[in-house]
Amino acid sequence: MTTHAVPVTIARTPARTRPVALARQDDVVTSAVGRRTLAVLRLATGFIFLWAFLDKLLGLGFSTPFERAWINGGTPAQGFLMSPAVTGPLQPWFQAMASPLADVLFMLGMLAIGVAVMSGVGLRVAAGAGSAVMLLMYLAEWPFAWGAASTNPLVDYHVVYAVALIAIAALHAGDTWGLGGAWKRLPIVQRFPWLA
């Protein structure tokens, strides 16, 4: 008796042709009060970054005097990196980063993070970048040393800002009182959801 092999056809799943449906804040946060509270947290957190940019750019006199403003030749990142505030075992590494390029990158980062978070667009990228900046500043100030400026060596304002950024992005806080919903409908964001 002869048997014939029957060819087997394996169906392939077609490549994704439809846009990805990105979650909306309404799907994640069901309370209107919760959504509004997150919107206020988003605006306040974004303004922290935007204010840092404006103060260092113009020397508004809060943390940066007018004569040390970036527009007057000040060096915002270099000034911090070479200051006594930078301590601990990573001090040489941070001081080696002090350069005009560090000033430009720091200022562009503060502006981009502030605008993105306040407008509610690109929150995933802004949360990642902002959290990285906060982690670097946390380590630069080395809160673990006895007598450090921080009153809590584990959780200080750098950590709280980073957690706030992550919560804002994870809970789609840009959809309420922001442009997040419209941003997520853009074809490029549909194609690359990490831009949401």
Overview of the structural elements:
- 55% of the residues lie in helices and 0% in strands.
- The protein is built from 9 helices and no strands.
- The longest helix is centred in the N-terminal third of the chain and has 27 residues, at 32-58.
- It is globular.
- Residues 13-19 have low confidence and may be disordered.
Write the layout of secondary structure elements.
Elements: H1 25-28, H2 32-58, H3 76-81, H4 91-97, H5 100-119, H6 123-141, H7 157-170, H8 180-184, H9 187-191
What value does the average pLDDT take? Answer: 91
Please report the total strand number as a whole number.
0
Helix proportion of residues, in percent?
Answer: 40-55%
Most strands sheet: none
In short:
This protein is an all-alpha fold and 196 residues long. The protein has helices at 25-28, 32-58, 76-81, 91-97, 100-119, 123-141, 157-170, 180-184, 187-191. The protein is globular and about 45 Å long.
Features:
196 residues; mainly alpha; globular
